[in-house]
Every structure is written in C-alpha cells, then in structure tokens.
Amino acid sequence: MELSPDQTIFWQYGFITINLTLVTTWGIMLFLISSSVVVTRKLKTGLQISRWQCFVEMIVTGINDQIKEVGLNKPQEYIGFIGTLFLFIGVSNVCIIFPGYTPPTASLSTTAALALCVFLAVPFYGISKTGILGYLKSYLQPTWIMLPFNLISEVSRTLALAVRLFGNIMSGGMIVAILLSISPFIFPVIMNALGLLTGTVQAYIFSILATVYIAAAVQNTKNKKKPKILNTN
Amino acid sequence: MKINWFTVIAQVINFLILVWLLKKFLYKPILNAVNTREKKITDELKDADAQKASAQQEKDDFKKKNTDFDTHKKNLMAAAVADAATQKEQLITAAKTQANELRTTMEKAAQEDQKNENAARAHDNQDQVFAMTRKALTAIASVSLEEHAANSFIQRLKSATEEEKKQMQDAFQSKEHVLLVRSAFALAEEQQASIKNVVKGVLNVEKTMEFKTDPQLVSGIELSTSGYKLGWNFSEYINALEEHTAEISKEKLKLQLEKKAVISN
C-alpha cells in the first residue's frame, strides 16, 4: 500500500522525478487556469451575468471578504497568494470524489512545499510593508528574550501546517482504502463524503492560518496589534 | 513517508506559477468586474436618488403651480363675475334710459299725431257741421246759410247792449279809417249794404269798410279794427267740440302709455 503519491513514479532521471503528485498538480493547475480563462473571457459588468460568472464571483468575493475579516485591509494584495492556496488545496481535496484519484495534498512533499511558501510569504509581506528592520524587530517582541521562542514558533507552525494538511488528507485516503478492504459497500461512500467535507475544511484552515500569519506579520510591524487568533484544534 | 525534495521544489514552482496565472486570469478580472458593477450600481443609485429628488422637486413645483393657478383662476372668475354684474347693471340702466327716451319720443310723437288728428278732425267736423247746418237751414228756412249768418250778425249788432255799443264805438273810432269785415263766404251786394247801414246806424261811425273772404271762419262774419273784434261764426261752437274731443283723446293716450310702461318694465 502506497502512503504517498510521490511513490508512483512515471519518469525519473537522476534527481528529477516525475511522479503522480506532480502530474496531478499539473492537471489541477490546468483545470483551474483553463476554467478561469473560460469564465473570465466574457465577463459582464451589468446586472445580468452568467451562472458560471456568478459562481466564480461568489468564490473570489468570499475569499476577499475572509481575508478582510481576518484583518488585512487591502485584501486584493493578498488574494493572489491566499486565494490560490485555498483553491488549489480545495480542488485537490474535492477531486477525491473521482475513483482512483489521489490528491497531491496527500503527499508530504506538496504540503511541505505549500507550508514553505507560507513560511516565505510571511516575511515577504512583512518586509514589503514595513521594511526589513521593522520585520526583524517583530521577533524581539515583546522582549528580546522571546527571540528563540519566536524563531521556534516560525518553524514549528510551518511544520504544523504541512503535517496537519498531509495527515488529514492522507488519513482520509487511508481510511477509505482500509474500509474498501473490510466493507466494500456503503461505508467507503460515507467516508468519501466525509472526506469531501474534511478536504474543504482543511483547505479553509490552511489558507486562513496563512492569512493569520501574514496578518500577524503585517500588523505586528505596522500597528503593534495582534490579529485574531483562531483555534485550529 | 519521506519528503521528495525535487517534488517540493517543483511544487513550490508550480504553486508560484499558479499564483501568477490565477492572479492574471481569475482574481484581477473578477475583482475588476465586481468593482465596475458596484460602481455602476452606486452610480445608478445616486442617479436614481438625484432623479427622485428632482422628481420630488418637480412635484412640489407642480403642486405650487397648481395652487397658484387655482387661486388665479378663482380671482379671475370673481373679477369676471363682478365685471359681468357691473356690465349688467350698466346695460339695464342704459336700456331703461333708452326705453324712457323712446317712451318720451313716442309720447311726443303720439301727442303730435293726436294734435294733427284733432286738427284734421276739427276741420272735418267744421266742414261737416257747416255742410249739415247749411243743408238743414236751406231745407228748413229756404234761405241760404250765408244769408242767415249775415242776418244773425246784423241782429247781433242791433241787439247789442248800450255798454257793448259804447265799447264798440270807442274801439272803432280809432285812427284807422278802414273797418275790416271778414266772412267765410263772399257776401252779396245787398248784404254788404245792410251791414254798412247797420254799422253806421248802430255804432254811429263813418268809416270805409272792406270785405274779405276767409274760409277759416266757417260760416260766419267778423268785424274787426285795431284792438277790437266783433263776430259771429260756427268756429266757436266747433272749437268747443274740438276741445272736448281733444280731452277724450288725451285720456286714451295716457292709458295706452301706462300700459306700455308696465310691459317694458
């Protein structure tokens, strides 16, 4: 039993490996980009719009509002990163409805890559807003003694992000696989449905946590205010 | 369960590419469309508010104009009614004045007509009476009326009282040397001689006498000089009849005019 789609290798040349994770990711990327191009090709600004435009607008404005609610006043600056996180993870997880599909988020490499992106995005946005010194000073808050703990916090929360998503999605796939061997009818369907819910919730949690971290970095250095702290347990 | 670092790097690159592409093809167009729509709706709402305010203003203006129009209409109507009443009074007064003038004119015309009619009737009456009397006297006494009138005149001179004679003598003994004898008909030579003798005898005056014919006397004779006149003719009787007839006509005319005045009012 393969625990990760990384183990399904299609092509390999030394260090370069084309595995199921990458192929699935490209497929999802293709789907997202082509859908976006198709929907936004004939955008209407009047009151009468197509149902697809309405659906996409609901998603985009929903993400925008969520970013705003967390505390980032200019959500259009962050929606590219946070929105893509949510859409990529969400679509990857929801596609488990298709038989034989393994989401790329079930690969620790993918979740680690996404967590690494968040890990890099936090200082990127923090520095872009207040400069490098302002951002580095945030590690000395509230006192310089907290510096090691702040550094550990940075690393551990990135690790937590990666492992949380990987664990949830991988475990969901594992449970379905185990249930299929024990009871091939009914229960796998229920667990699959539950997996849809779990996958969507995980996409939401991942992106909202990324938003919180970015907001914390931006607001710590800007207003000395702490953002909303979400209980992710 | 281990991390494939090539996959990690590839996924990071994939993710960054996806961020860039979605930003370009999804977020920007969608957010622009939403913002454009919101702006459009906001503008339309503002425009609708402005139009509503304008409509309210126009409504208020229209109401005010309507009220002003009604007031103006009432004032004009009241003025027109007052003018009509004044004109009516003026027209009635003018009509009454005209009616009065017309009535006066008609009265005058009627009186003139009556007067002319009375004169014509009197003249006719005189002629008729004269003709009738002459016919009657001719038939009864077998003498002409003219003779009878001359005889009556002579008799009257003869039967005059002393006082009358004195008056006549005083009157006829004036500086004028001509005594005028007028008669309605031409007197015969004999009658003229009789009258001359009687006058000479009774009045004791010696004057030239001149005889003239005047149909207005209606069968009679009149002796006149300056300041005195003596005569006998039918005119006196006929004048009395004329006065009586005129009095009756006057009463009739008065009744007719009263009736007309009642009808015109």
UniProtKB/TrEMBL annotation, chain A:
Domain of life: Bacteria
Residue spans crossing the bilayer: 12-33, 78-101, 107-127, 165-187, 193-218
A GO CC term attached to the entry: plasma membrane
Keywords tagged on the record: ATP synthesis, Cell membrane, CF(0), Hydrogen ion transport, Ion transport, Membrane, Transmembrane, Transmembrane helix, Transport
Compartments it resides in: Cell membrane; Membrane
Keyword set includes Transmembrane: yes
Any GO BP: proton motive force-driven plasma membrane ATP synthesis
InterPro entries according to UniProt: Alt_ATP_synth_F0_Asu, ATP_syn_F0_a_bact/chloroplast, ATP_synth_F0_asu, ATP_synth_F0_asu_AS, F0_ATP_A_sf
Coarse class of the protein's main subcellular location: membrane
Biological function: Key component of the proton channel; it plays a direct role in the translocation of protons across the membrane.
Similarity remark: Belongs to the ATPase A chain family.
Protein name as annotated: ATP synthase subunit a
Biological source species: Leeuwenhoekiella aestuarii
Name of the gene this protein is made from: atpB
UniProtKB/TrEMBL annotation, chain B:
Domain of life per record: Bacteria
Organism ancestry: Bacteria, Pseudomonadati, Bacteroidota, Flavobacteriia, Flavobacteriales
Annotated transmembrane regions: 6-22
Coiled-coil ranges from the UniProt annotation: 31-65
Keywords assigned by UniProt, alphabetized: ATP synthesis, Cell membrane, CF(0), Coiled coil, Hydrogen ion transport, Ion transport, Membrane, Transmembrane, Transmembrane helix, Transport
Subunit structure: F-type ATPases have 2 components, F(1) - the catalytic core - and F(0) - the membrane proton channel. F(1) has five subunits: alpha(3), beta(3), gamma(1), delta(1), epsilon(1). F(0) has three main subunits: a(1), b(2) and c(10-14). The alpha and beta chains form an alternating ring which encloses part of the gamma chain. F(1) is attached to F(0) by a central stalk formed by the gamma and epsilon chains, while a peripheral stalk is formed by the delta and b chains.
Pfam family, one: ATP-synt_B
Name of the molecule in the record: ATP synthase subunit b
Protein family membership: Belongs to the ATPase B chain family.
Gene (name only): atpF
Molecular function GO terms recorded: proton-transporting ATP synthase activity, rotational mechanism; proton-transporting ATPase activity, rotational mechanism
Function: F(1)F(0) ATP synthase produces ATP from ADP in the presence of a proton or sodium gradient. F-type ATPases consist of two structural domains, F(1) containing the extramembraneous catalytic core and F(0) containing the membrane proton channel, linked together by a central stalk and a peripheral stalk. During catalysis, ATP synthesis in the catalytic domain of F(1) is coupled via a rotary mechanism of the central stalk subunits to proton translocation.
A single Gene Ontology CC term: plasma membrane
Topological relation to the membrane, as annotated: Single-pass membrane protein
Record localization: Cell membrane; Endomembrane system
